[in-house]
């Protein structure tokens, strides 16, 4: 796959630009015969907005997943997959939890999620990345505007826009605890950023992203007639968002943490090539070398109970 | 006034505590004969919540005040009354704008404001402090939870809770541009904080407040069954908030600035004594030495037009 053309150049010491997306958002269509699949109306919403919120969709998963994550915090102490807040020792992220938890591994293959993912991507999918994000009460820091795809393209070599992020709210996500802000419709545009990626940029960017953050002028142009929307809902709400949706989040000064469990599904027809930055591959917990198609599981409950 | 008892000790190297408020919130009552006065219902809301939002109350003032503030930014360049953002040179605050602007001086004595202030305080009032706060788009920083009264008591010697803050929204204040977060009902409690005030603490605290910020445990106890409310509204909305209302704000990652013009009115029966910190007085632009009762003006328009 050497020599794959770079259709979405960024951080190549050029000027910042906005250009049209060259790929579909939804690769499949309605499949009424497939259980747990999305309606054409939901697919159209996802196509137009770049995200879909399924309120209170999996409330029964919250308690067992939270118990499992509490266990992982202890069992994984000292692991490289754990990241803390920029200004404190407070746990911010657990990467690759599926590798250390049968429940989370099986949950990532729940047909209620996986059948929708396959439908959006129009193909089988593999789990490119997974994480638990915890935004602590009072001191959770903000995250600037960015498109995940921009990073995955430049730093991981994801060639096209054919990946979807799915996340479950583990606590209520409210207007006040640093919710995800998104720009509906922004995924139709590609923001090519200034700068040049340094080696091991992820060690910095996972704490505080500096590269791949569009400048105010670019954000103004992108926002144009679009607004900002907060993605809020009660614990158990499931969210799908396109890989190129522009998003960010303010800090959390409320007294309740904002926690989510996130999976990034990439199409098996969109496997990474040599990173367009020319730099070495990022660690396995950021771009999973296991790219076998996921198989749906029938039931979680023997493990979740 | 030496020897005034300290009814609200804080930063005296003790443990953090919550104690009941010892003063009324509303000192006066309904005065149907006074133009622009508040109804008993509004007064009751203010008493219970600690704040009152008058949506779209003074839309005609927005444009002339913004023009005036643009002028002040230039005319006051280099003045000590100007404060910038902690991490940049962007203008954050203009203190004492009434001293440099006839329009703002007269606006602070608009009977639509002043008659309500007198009613709440049950007395004449003087202008203890005034400022323009600008929270820039994309990079406006958050402000942690605090009660203004705690600072004014410790650092300025304000003896009792008998002051009210009034502010006009100069831009739309939305859920997304770093709005004021308040805890309705928190003004009925006094949070005594840990720490000890250093000399010229204001030089730090006006950029990033460290002292007078209750610890998470105290905030949990204070929040108890209360929630967090965002104070939002369109430009021209007027807000009254009690001096002891616990408030803070998240950072502004949106593309529109949040700007307000703020006045702090203190009762002439509540004039400052020697600061309870024992430290020297803060500058004139933080606690105004001119404590003569304000006289309402009849009309702003010769100046505002």
TrEMBL record, chains A, B:
A matching Pfam family: PhyH
UniProt keyword list: Dioxygenase, Oxidoreductase
Molecular function via GO: 2-oxoglutarate-dependent dioxygenase activity; iron ion binding
Oxidoreductase as UniProt keyword: yes
Chain residue ranges for the region called Disordered: 1-24
Cofactor: Fe(2+)
InterPro entries given in the database record: Phytyl_CoA_dOase-like (IPR008775)
Protein name: Phytanoyl-CoA dioxygenase
Species of the source: Salinivibrio kushneri
Upper lineage: Bacteria, Pseudomonadati, Pseudomonadota, Gammaproteobacteria, Vibrionales
